[in-house]
Amino acid sequence: MPDLPARPLPRRADVVVVGAGLAGLACALRLHAQQVDVVVVEAADGVGGRVRTDRVDGFRLDRGFQLLNPYYPEVRRLVDLPALGLQPLPAGVVVASGGGRRFLADPRRTSVTEWPRVLADLPRTGVLRELPGFGRWALRAARADPAELLSAPDEPWGRALDRRGLTGPLRHGVLEPFLAGVLAERDGTTSRRFVELLLRSFVRGRPSLPRAGMQALPDQLAAGLPAGVVHLGVQVTAVAGGPEGRQVATAGGTITARAVVVAADPDGTAALTGLPVPAMHGLTTFWHVAEVPPTASGALHVDADHRGPVVNSVVISHGAPSYRSDTRALVATTVLGAAGDQATETAVRHQLALVHGTSTAGWGLLATHAIPRALTAMPAPLVARQPVELGDGLFVAGDHRDTASQQGALVSGRRAADAVLRHLGHTVPPRPPLEVSGAR
Q1: Which one of 94, 369, 412, 415 has the largest count of C-beta atoms within 10 Å of its C-beta?
Q2: Distance of CA 86 to the CA centre of its chain
Q3: How confident is the model over 126-152, as pLDDT tens digits?
Q4: Which letter, b or e, does each residue of 83-92 get, where b requires 16 or more Cβ atoms within 10 Å of its Cβ?
């Protein structure tokens, strides 16, 4: 996003949105579409919240390994997907075990020319016994309406796999390490409902990376707002009620508004609203560069033997060539927790040598993103729609009010905007239609 010129904060607005992450931007866009005078204030130097991209030595590094699933309904409603230049990752995972690596492919998205290799690898992964049960589970989730999945009895996803007889190599060597990187936990405590919603999106969509990095997603949302709506580098210190409306206190002055939507990070939201801080999981991403690519595959690699802290690793520059600046390979590796210390990085290098089957001694470390509050925990029983209206003109948005995903953040922004519209006496319009093409 181009640098926004510093503008004086207005003293009044119909609505102030605190936070320019996905939830805050989605909220502001919906309010603006209904001719509501909205101001967005953001403490950081750019929009996006946790969805940011940096340039380091010419490489694009997202702040933590992230992917965009273009099948998410709210993404399809709000985003011009073709404009993002999406680069899909290969449909499958590479399973490293012992001294070998086997590609476990999505059969629906595998070309005929690749089938001989895929069929040869399949028996060697040891997953054949569990595949029918997993296939039935995945297809059921893919075909179900989301409301059906959310209304079903809930339980921890690990217990759900036990009931389905998924207790062998497919579960422990593939599903658990794969989902660990998605859920930021590997103990099976996340809601089965939430996991099935994710599974549905994986089956129907192709996780991808925008040409300009994940930052392109919030940048595009912000570009849909008029100049002067978003104010960066503005730290909100308090939100209080008053005789003329809500008072938003900042170092640059106080804004009086008829309504305030707090869409900050969970700690900031708790401080401004009094809500409890939700339980969060941490993730750390190590970004390495290698003179010689360790593999020709751009697929996600998992270690079926659990030989270290790595939950997944991927040569990003194969699947998303726009992320690299030269011929060197860019490798993103994820571990659980905020563990960016030297000892962990050393253990990661050792494990990556086993996973990729090559020496990592000459790899350079570009950056480490240790994010203690990367994902909101989604334990069972899942409450997928938490209130967004707190009373007296105060509202809240964020994936912690919905589901811990880009979909959840965007939906929470829409729900908060609709609640604000009702509070202000406006007619709430219907949800925007799904644009299969991605055009806004």
Answers
A1: 412
A2: 15
A3: 788 888 888 899 999 999 999 999 999
A4: ebebbbbbeb
